[in-house]
Amino acid sequence: MITRYRAWMDGEGLHDVDPAVIITDIRESKPEENIVTAGNGYRDGQRVLYRHREALSVTIRFMIREYDVARRKGILSRVLAWAHDGWLQINDRPEQRLRVVCEDMPAITSALKWTEELSVVFTAYAVPYWQETHAVSVSGSGQSGTVHLAPLGDMPCCLEANISNTGSGTLNILTLTAGNRSFVFSGLGLASGKTLTIRYAEDTGLLRMEIEGESVMNKRTAASADDLLLYPGSNTITFTADQQISGIFKARGLWR
Hints:
The chain has one helix spanning 69-82, and strands spanning 7-9, 12-13, 21-28, 33-39, 46-53, 56-64, 86-90, 96-104, 118-124, 130-132, 136-149, 157-158, 160-165, 174-178, 181-185, 195-200, 207-211, 214-215, 229-230, 235-251, 254-255. The protein is elongated and about 70 Å long. It is mainly beta. It folds into two domains: 7-128, Elongation Factor Tu (Ef-tu), domain 3 (Beta Barrel); 134-255, Sandwich (Jelly Rolls).
C-alpha cells in the first residue's frame, strides 16, 4: 500500500518505525479564535478588546499491515514510543515544525485487528504555530550598525542573536532595536572574546539571555521590551555598543 503521507517526530519518521506502518491520513485542526468585543458607545457596531487563540491539533491516522498478532503488537509498541512530546513535522508542510504534546494514542489491545485504522493526536499549546525548521540569519559587526532580516511565514516572530565582544575591553552597554522595540543592556559585563546568547528555549519557548550559560536577564533596563518582533518580509535591526561586536541575528518564521 502506497501513501503520500509522511510524519517525523524529532527527526525520526513514523514510516521508518516499520515498513508495515502505513499513514492513511493527517488532519490538522484549524484553531479557533475567541474574540472579546465591547460596544462602540454612541456609534453602531463593536470594537475588539482582545483575541484568544485556541490550541492546534494534528491527528495522524495509520494502519499496521501485518497479519501476525504478536508482531503487530510489537510494531504498535514502537509507534507509541515514537509518539512522544517534541517537534512534529509533516510532509504537507515542508521546512516547518510544530512543538506538540501527545494527547491521545491507541491501546495495545487494538493491535489485534489488522484491518483497523488507528490514530495518534498531537496538540500544540505553549507555541501553537508552525515554525520554520531552519532559522534565517544575517551577520553584522562594528560598534554600531544596521542589518536586514527577512523571515518567512505569515505571523510575527521573535529575534534571536549571538553577540560576541571583539573589542579590547569589557562590553557593558548594548542596545538592539527592531521596529519600535529594543533590548537595552547596562552593566552587561561581556568580556572580550565572550558571547552573549539571546535565544528561545526549544522545550518551553521561553526567552533566555546568557553568557557562558549564566543568565543576564537582569542586565536589561526598564526600557527593554519583552521580545523583539519581526514581521514577514524585510525587517531593519540596529545595534549600538560600547565595544566592537560581531553579531549573528536570526529568526524562525511562524505560520498559523
